Fold these 2 entries.
Entry 1:
Amino acid sequence: MTALNGSNALIIGGSSGIGLAIAAGFRQAGARVAIAGRRQDKVEAAVQQLNAAIGVDAPPVSGFTADVTDLEAIKRLGRSFAERLGPLDSLVTCQGTTMLQPAGEFSEGDYDHLMDTNLKSVFFACTHLAAPMLERGRGTVITIASLAAHRGWPNAAVYAMTKHGVLGLTRTLAVEWAPLGVRINSISPGVFLTELNRKRMSSERTARLRDRTPLGRFGETSELVGAAVFLASDASSYVTGADLVVDGGYLASGI
Ligand SMILES: NC(=O)c1ccc[n+]([C@@H]2O[C@H](COP(=O)([O-])OP(=O)(O)OC[C@H]3O[C@@H](n4cnc5c(N)ncnc54)[C@H](OP(=O)(O)O)[C@@H]3O)[C@@H](O)[C@H]2O)c1
């Protein structure tokens, strides 16, 4: 039930971190995968890495360079994907960035950058790239939220706003699209060390986060793959509008 054989998947933000792991996992599950990212050199390196995986019975990965804060770039991405791979079955919006500072220090530029990258791009990627799915009456979308959509985190005011927005958008689209045959769910990852956060983790912050995590460690990006494959596959055919938390027990913990 969790096979993605013969389906076409696009992972935006698939050139590193969580998106790269999901792209590898989707390919392993049999999907024809394309990744999109902002920087061309990273996209090319990721495509090479994904295609070098041995023992995978799936077509080669395609790479697209696109700054998805730009609606025209999203439209171009949709057209290029359709030309090269055909109809899109599964979309994952894994693009994102963060910035940690006291709320009063965010400039208008910082605010716009976070909102555009984490929220505007997700909204328009969902609405434009899923439009053909709605016409065909089938498809799945996965957005990436965060623990910051569930709890208050100091110095992350704008990031938290964007991730609360991702949850709100996901639930709203789930209700709007359910009668049209398209499911959309989010994943809220706990802490996974990637380009996004590796340099922002002081030893004190690292220790506090680990101590609060019942499983006693941070996640490996490969540990998010099962959740993503589940949500993209028929195994989750009755799941829409859900947020799947993959956090080593962090949110469940009372301490
Ligand atoms: N890591 C964690 O612990 C964690 C926890 C909770 C939620 N998340 C969320 O998970 C998602 C992935 O994060 P990550 O940790 O995997 O970080 P990452 O390694 O930095 O990956 C971010 C990806 O998004 C792409 N991207 C950023 N801005 C873009 C734009 N304007 N247009 C197209 N692509 C863009 C990046 O490409 P470039 O590098 O070329 O910009 C990269 O491929 C984010 O939404 C993040 O908020 C992460």
Entry 2:
Amino acid sequence: MSLSQALQAARELHSQLPALREFAPWPGDLQPAALAPAAMPALDQVAGFGQPGTAETQPLINALRNSASQAYWTQTYTEEEVGAHFLQNYGYFELFGPTGHFRTNQLRGYIAYWGAGLKYDWHSHEAEELYVVLGGGAQFLTDENDCWLSAGDTRLHGGWQPHAMNTGDQPILTYVLWRGAGLEGLPLMGGQRASAA
Ligand SMILES: [Fe+2]
């Protein structure tokens, strides 16, 4: 199955979840790009992702399970920053955006996966961000808030707002939108203290 089906499932999800529609309109200028697949260690975990979604998120989970091997998976962080275990169990790809499988400069849509038992340390970035939990769950932290999010839940992070995430006994598969200034930037690790200044 190709990533076109994942894009269509994301588009359908966008029409169904108010939080997505309120964050940004679906990009109107999407163009497919010839982006060759790139594997990552946790590819099989995504292809075999077994945590249930909601009625709205399950179609995108299914499309991702089937097309995971077609994605250009990347990892922002180095082993020095997060450790070898983290890199064996995490990865993301840009489904659409300035450098994604489908190109647009209006919005960025990532698919990001973390395995169970991971601590994703404090980080921040310029772009505003909306997380949608497709399946599984994790503890999401900001300076003001600390809560467990499960399938169908959403979380908004402001520009340069430090945030962190911990998975527990289950993995998490997420759909993440970026909008506004900094659309092309990357998350910066350890940004809690520095960027809060
Ligand atoms: Fe983020």
